[in-house]
Amino acid sequence: MIEIIGMTVEDAKSIEKCGGERIELVSSLTEGGLTPSYGLIENVIKNVDIPVNVMIRPHANRFVYSEEDLKIMKKDIQIAKYLGANGVVLGVLDEKNNIDEKSLIELLDVCDGVDVTFHRAIDETNMNESIKVLNKYKEVTNILTSGGKNPIGENIYNIREIIKNSKHIKVLLGGGLNFENINEISRLTKVKDFHFGTAIRVDNNPFKNIDEEKLKRLVKLLKA
User: Fold this and answer.
1) How would you classify residue 93: left for phi > 0, otherwise alpha for psi between -120 and 50, otherwise beta?
2) What is the pLDDT of residues 29-41, one digit of tens each?
3) Please, are residues 55 and 63 in contact by the beta-carbon 8 Å criterion?
4) Is the CB of residue 22 less than 8 Å from the CB of residue 53?
5) Could you tell me the pTM of the whole model?
């Protein structure tokens, strides 16, 4: 699985055209990705045939959410489902950087029928404890991780442990992947599901468009 971050309808069309297999739809990539507008969600889904997973993140102020934040997130999940999203991408932590299980349950209660990716908020936590928590919830289908707080290439052991301990959950690697390290990381971890953002944009710049030639090259490399 090759998942690519998209922020516009044009991004989505480029991702599909160049062989990307799933879109993570966000706004504000420079903030780590926030919830896109309903109009954008609807139009992206109408314009591509590949799955679209929607970021559910109301603000960039950490991953700790108030009750009002959670109300917004639940509404956003419901609308993303109504508009035809394949899945949602979310993560909730408490003040001690543990998974906020109570808030997670609240969100999962409205996620029936769609995939759920627990995003890179997990990299801020004790990974072993977090995997135990997420394994309890069949609704969680994917974990997006770079294996911890260090650069992804330094987290090979952690990634292997995550894979070993993730019972029903697929591990999606992302955060710091590029053309220089992807082959080695793939070889060392045996992961087959990858997530890319700025690495496939013009000049690796989050404000610029997807570089279609670069994305085609990446897809060819990963499919080899």
Assistant:
1) beta
2) 999 999 999 999 9
3) no
4) yes
5) 0.96
